[in-house]
Every structure is written in structure tokens, then in C-alpha cells.
UniProtKB/TrEMBL annotation:
Record carries keyword Repeat: no
Species for this entry: Struthidea cinerea
PANTHER family, per database record: ENDOSOME-ASSOCIATED TRAFFICKING REGULATOR 1, ENDOSOME-ASSOCIATED-TRAFFICKING REGULATOR 1
Protein's recorded name: Endosome-associated-trafficking regulator 1
Highest rank taxon of the organism: Eukaryota
Name of the gene: Sdccag3
Length: 159
């Protein structure tokens, strides 16, 4: 009985040591789990902040693109008006040449119309370049948002 008692005590001691070891491991794992939760929350907040920033940038770029499109449409209309004015000036110029009356005035009108047309053409080109730049920026933002979706999918798969 004493021998059996000693054996049981020995087993109890071993089990207590094993239990303490497992309790230590459990505490360490709980601490690590808590640290991981905190880290994950911070990463989620950072990601959310980044998404909000990207959304704000996207809204700004969209506004710019709309403004550039409106500007380009106005410039196209102005360009069309100036081209019509140029055609009229050319016709008037031809009529004046045929009549040999007021040649200098017709040349001046044509020159003014030509200068207006050149200004509008230059302005139109700049606006179109700006519109294309805005479209490229929007594409970049769209690609960035796609990559953010992939990051969040990878994070969810990792859990």
C-alpha cells in the first residue's frame, strides 16, 4: 500500500508539474493571442484609414475629371463657333477681294479669327491632356482599390 501510495504521489507530482507547464504555455499563448488581436485591430484601422484616404482622392480626381470634361466640352463649342466665324470671315474676305473693297479690314478680321482659333486650339489641347491625365489617375486609384481588396482577402484567408 505504501508503495502504491508512493507511486500515486509520484504520478500526482508529475501531473502537477505537467499541469503547471501547460498552464504556463496557456498563459503565454493567451498573451500572444491578445498581442495578435491588438496588432490585427491596428492593421484593420490603418487599412480603413488608407481606404478612406483613397476614396477621398478618388472623389477629388472624379471632380477634376468632370470639371475637365466640362471645360473640354465648352472649348469644343467655342472652337466650333470660332471655326464658323473663320469660315464666315473667309467668305467675307473672298467677297471683299472680288469687290476689291475693304481688303485690309477683311484681312484683319481673318487674322483676328485665326488668332482666336489658334488660342482655342491650344487651350483645347491642354484641357484634353488634363482630361487624359485625370483618367490615368482614376485608373491608378482603381488598381490600388483592387489591390486593397486582395490584401483583405489574403488577411481573411490567413485567419
Amino acid at each position: 500500500l505504501k508503495e502504491e501510495n508512493a507511486t500515486l504521489r509520484s504520478k500526482i507530482n508529475k501531473l502537477q508539474i505537467l499541469s503547471e507547464t501547460q498552464a504556463d504555455k496557456m498563459r503565454k499563448l493567451e498573451k500572444k493571442l491578445e498581442e495578435n488581436k491588438i496588432k490585427e485591430e491596428k492593421e484593420a484601422q490603418d487599412l480603413e484609414a488608407m481606404v478612406q484616404h483613397v476614396e477621398q482622392n478618388l472623389q477629388l480626381m472624379t471632380k477634376r475629371a468632370v470639371k475637365a470634361e466640362n471645360s473640354a466640352a465648352k472649348l469644343r463649342q467655342e472652337n466650333a463657333l470660332l471655326q464658323a466665324e473663320l469660315r464666315n470671315s473667309k467668305l467675307e474676305n473672298e467677297a471683299l477681294r472680288a469687290g476689291q473693297a475693304g481688303l485690309a479690314a477683311a484681312k484683319q478680321n481673318a487674322e483676328v479669327a485665326l488668332q482666336h482659333l489658334l488660342q482655342v486650339t491650344t487651350s483645347s489641347r491642354a484641357s484634353i491632356r488634363q482630361l487624359l491625365s485625370g483618367a490615368e489617375s482614376l485608373q491608378l486609384v482603381a488598381d490600388l482599390l483592387k489591390s486593397i481588396d486582395r490584401i483583405s482577402e489574403v488577411s481573411e484567408d490567413g485567419q
